[in-house]
Design a protein that fits this description.
This protein has nine helices and 14 strands. It has 327 residues and is α+β, with helices and mostly antiparallel strands. The chain starts with a helix and ends in a 7-residue tail after the last strand.
Length: 327
């Protein structure tokens, strides 16, 4: 889009004025088109000063998610990033278009109108405050080869947040991210498998991060459970910075073909607040209490029952006593 071409030129000027004529010549469009693009950027929230005979000056860099802001913060050139203003669900977007999109396509939206969580729950996705990102994998393997992708995605997301926000986020098994006892992130993995071959058609990892919401922004039913990076630290972070780091961490996962190593398992264990805690397990019609003792190599949760017997949990919902209202 023209406005993003103009934005890149204004950013590259690094605090200097750029004449409309220079921008026009560089892009190959009329001065009127440049003026229209500047107006659109101003409507987006950019403060752009214009002075006759001097040109345009970008005066601030607001918290906006667009392709220029994200690409500027990446450590390498990255194609196949789609940035939307609003969508029902970024996961839905990739599911509906995966046949025409290349492997490792990323879609990011400033807002989701029908954000999804696990077990059919809704994930609140308001405009201008969070990150809603989905990553498309087309691996040449079977589901058993990527059984740990949800846990690995949690590690990648934790790294991105900790590195950019100077936090120490915890993981509640299997992939909830928690800060000061509040859930700040939801991760939903969806997969389609060919019936005949058993191979994966697509694997989509959807990640929603509450970044700059105030605590009062959350619905009443979520205020005791959900939080944001800002509500728990008091520090506002530009979403494009976190998004870029998250893309880099997810790319590492994809490039390694989701292989689990001892370092990743150790990092997960060190961050997992479910360990050595009383937990409640809900899986199908089963609902029982136990004690979480370890994380296995496949990221399943090892628990000890009241009878003393041990069991591995690889699916279902595991609540931690003292967290999210579980007493």
């Amino acid at each position: 889009m023209t406005k993003y071409k103009v934005l890149k030129i204004l950013k590259s000027a690094k605090g200097e004025y750029v004449s409309g004529e220079k921008i026009s010549n560089e892009i190959g469009l009329s001065r009127m088109a440049i003026s229209t693009a500047v107006k659109s950027l101003r409507n987006d929230g950019y403060e752009i000063e214009s002075i006759t005979n001097k040109g345009y000056l970008l005066k601030n860099n607001p918290d906006i998610l667009n392709i220029v802001e994200i690409s500027e913060n990446l450590q390498y050139k990255r194609d196949n990033i789609i940035v939307l203003e609003s969508i029902d669900s970024t996961n839905n977007y990739l599911k509906e278009n995966y046949n025409t999109l290349p492997n490792k396509t990323i879609v990011v939206s400033d807002e989701q109108t029908m954000g999804k969580g696990r077990r059919g729950k809704r994930f609140e996705s308001p405009k201008g405050t969070g990150i809603y990102l989905s990553y498309l994998f087309k691996p040449e393997c079977t589901p058993s080869d990527v059984s740990s992708v949800s846990a690995l995605a949690a590690i990648a997301t934790k790294k991105a947040i900790d590195l950019t926000c100077n936090t120490n986020v915890s993981i509640k098994w299997v992939n909830d991210l928690v800060l000061n006892g509040k859930k700040i992130t939801g991760i939903l993995t969806e997969m389609s498998v060919e019936a005949e071959s058993g191979h994966i058609e697509y694997l989509i990892v959807g990640i929603g991060i509450n970044v700059n919401q105030k605590q009062n922004d959350f619905p009443d039913e979520l205020k005791d459970i959900a939080g944001s990076i800002f509500s728990q630290t008091g520090i506002k972070t530009k979403r494009a910075i976190i998004t870029a780091k998250l893309i880099e961490e997810l790319d590492k996962l994809a490039n390694s073909e989701f292989k689990v190593n001892k370092d990743l398992l150790k990092e997960y264990k060190n961050s997992c607040i479910s360990l050595n805690k009383a937990v409640r397990v809900v899986c199908g019609n089963e609902n029982y209490e136990a004690f979480a003792t370890d994380i296995n190599e496949d990221f399943s949760l090892k628990i000890k029952l009241s009878t003393g017997a041990e069991k591995n949990v690889s699916s279902g919902e595991v609540s931690v006593r003292g967290l999210y209202g579980y007493v």
